[in-house]
Design a protein that fits this description.
Helix content is 28%, strand content 22%. It is an alpha/beta fold. Helix 8 packs across helix 9.
Length: 425
């Protein structure tokens, strides 16, 4: 039977339907040997008598004992686990996929004029900055990387595979392109990377060569990247709500209305999980172990016909969401709405799958620009501070933006606070 219930997702309440399910479903389960409480959405950590104990439960040492599992069970079998104080999270496992680049025919022919500096690098002022990302570790969770590409010849790499593919090598090209924008070296005479002297580029292959994955693999990748010391984690991927509903309806025979209701519940639960993960990493920055989570807003909009709001995981309040703009700083027609900030995402030249350069468009291309600029600001902040505070980093990024094309006022719906800019001095 269906019955309405109120579900709080991203800072607003929506009416969905709750349904009692008896069939086996898949779950992402996070447990720990000792009880801890995850921070609530928007919690200000560092205040209150129990803040120190909370942070202690989230440290790298504590995270090493976390168990992240993909479990298939009936919902009633998970209730005792949900109520166990050692359970951090029990969330329906949903399919994740790379945010597909926008078709070249919508924007260009997939080519760009030769230049000594890629236009995106120049647009965010990375080519004029005295900072290079030195001392910073950045993680990219995507389809892996082509380690043999010339863009990564002397880049310190750490690579791990979280998929069913045989290796972490990129057979898709999406992850290689994103990594090139963050920290790639000059390719065919063109500078493509923003933070070209990062201490380490941490690559988690969480999507297969076909661009498919699950929330479980993403969470495992986030935890692993954090344990490797990543201070910034870039994700150009999204939750595939349609595929989840279809798996229930067509794959398991659930009536369509019920499948949509179950999908909405799973969607809300996953947004909440990502919000808590982001809040946790914000909390850890108070002891020098935090990480900024950056995610692409999504490419589902089709201006001027319609727009779609930012999709998970980027929609989580604690994750920095990124929209895409073109060379004129106008919002890209495909870019989803209400992102936090924006960055170059049209005709972006970066490392190609088989070597050389490839030109792609999408919020997937915009998010690595923000991750790279965040590394430059992190280096700048650490010149005067002993450890990197994620809230301080976020506020600094928000304060250093350029307005979108149509004037000095921020276009919060389309380009967020504005186009991100690198520190110059």
């Amino acid at each position: 039977m269906l019955y309405p219930c109120a579900l709080k997702t991203f800072s607003e309440r929506r009416l969905v339907y709750s349904i009692e399910v008896t069939m086996e479903l898949e779950y992402t389960v996070i447990t720990t040997p000792r009880p801890i409480s995850m921070p609530s959405q928007g919690a200000v950590v560092g205040l209150g008598a129990d803040a120190g104990e909370l942070i202690k439960g989230l440290t790298a040492e504590a995270q090493e004992s976390w168990k992240i599992e993909h479990i298939k069970a009936r919902p009633h079998e998970m209730r005792d686990l949900k109520n166990d104080s050692r359970t951090i999270s029990v969330t329906p496992a949903m399919p994740m996929s790379l945010i597909m680049p926008a078709p070249a025919s919508e924007l260009s022919q997939g080519t760009a004029p030769a230049a000594s500096v890629a236009w995106g690098v120049e647009a965010v002022d990375a080519d004029r900055s005295r900072f290079s990302g030195e001392g910073i570790r950045i993680a990219v969770l995507d389809t892996g990387i082509n380690v043999a590409h010339q863009a990564f010849e002397d880049v310190p790499l750490l690579v791990q595979n979280f998929t069913t593919d045989a290796s972490a090598n990129d057979g898709n090209g999406h992850g290689t392109h994103c990594a090139g924008t963050i920290a790639g070296r000059t390719v065919d005479g063109t500078r493509i990377g923003i933070a070209t002297k990062v201490n380490q580029l941490i690559i988690g292959k969480v999507l297969t060569d076909q661009g498919q994955g699950s929330t479980t693999a993403i969470v495992q990748g986030i935890q692993w990247a954090s344990l490797q010391g990543a201070q910034i984690i870039s994700m150009s991927l999204g939750l595939d709500f349609t595929a989840y509903v279809e798996s229930l309806h067509k794959g398991m025979g659930v009536e369509l209305k019920a499948a949509v209701s179950m999908g909405l519940q799973a969607y809300g639960a996953n947004v909440e999980m990502f919000e808590k993960l982001g809040d946790s990493f914000n909390a850890l920055s108070y002891i020098g172990q935090g990480a900024l989570l950056v995610a692409a807003a999504g490419n589902e909009s089709r201006r001027p016909v319609y727009t779609i709001a930012t999709s998970p995981p980027a929609v989580a309040d604690s994750i920095l969401s990124v929209a895409a703009v073109d060379r004129e700083f106008a919002v890209a027609p495909f870019s989803n709405t209400y992102a936090d900030v924006s960055a170059p995402g049209v005709d972006i030249s970066s490392a190609g799958l088989d070597g050389g350069l490839a030109v792609l468009s999408g919020t997937s291309m915009a998010a690595p620009h923000v991750a790279g600029v965040a590394a430059l600001w992190s280096q700048r902040l650490l010149e005067s501070e002993s450890q990197l505070n994620i809230d301080r980093l976020k506020s600094t990024l928000f304060a250093n933006v350029s307005p979108a094309a149509d004037g000095a006022m921020p276009d919060l719906e389309n380009t967020g606070r504005g186009v991100i800019k690198a520190p110059l001095i």
